[in-house]
Amino acid sequence: MEPVPAVNGPDLTARLVDEAARLLLEHGPAGLSLRKLAASVGVSTMPVYTLFGDKQGLLAAMHREGFRRLGAALGAVPRTDDPLADVIALGVAYRRAALASPHLYGLMFGRMAPEFSPAADDRAAADATYQPLVEAVARCQRAGVFTGDEPHRIALHLWAVSHGMVNLELNGQLPDVGAPEEAYLEALGYAGMPFLS
């Protein structure tokens, strides 16, 4: 007989969050409930209700976990003496994080659950994952690699291209232009060209 997982164990929480995201993607908001989630994972409803409280709590946990994973992936990118290479490395880490948690990505950046609205603290934590890109662009500007001294507009442009490419790939809508990773890197390169000094 399998041991009962700890109610507050991180492994169980991660399993529940990932399975909830899968259920949401496959069945929509109406197909996601705490009871269905418990049945799908093979646990009683008690740990699910203990961890999340209700459906809104579950959606909030999914949103937080998605951005926690993204923040960890971006935070793991080492800072080097080449600021442009660092911008590219952040873009690669962004794509990898999205591909590693595609079900969560839809909730983080889409309207998969229209009834869900993240709390102010959760929105702030999500916004913080954007800062490494802004800082890397600012380093490029200080080094004379990018023009200007206002990094936010350039960062937004680069993120929009990255986000768009990732969405196309996750939704199976990327045109047949070769290997997806190569197409992604090429798009990032083209996105940065207008800003090169």
From TrEMBL:
Protein name from the UniProt record: TetR family transcriptional regulator
Origin: domain of life: Bacteria
Entries under Pfam families matching the protein: TetR_C_33, TetR_N
One GO MF term: DNA-binding transcription factor activity
Stretches assigned to the HTH tetR-type domain: 10-70
DNA-binding stretch(es), residue numbering of this chain: 33-52
Native source species: Actinoplanes nipponensis
Keyword Transcription: yes
Keywords: DNA-binding, Transcription, Transcription regulation
Residues spanning the signal sequence: none
UniProt keyword Transcription regulation present: yes
SUPFAM superfamilies linked: Homeodomain-like, Tetracyclin repressor-like, C-terminal domain
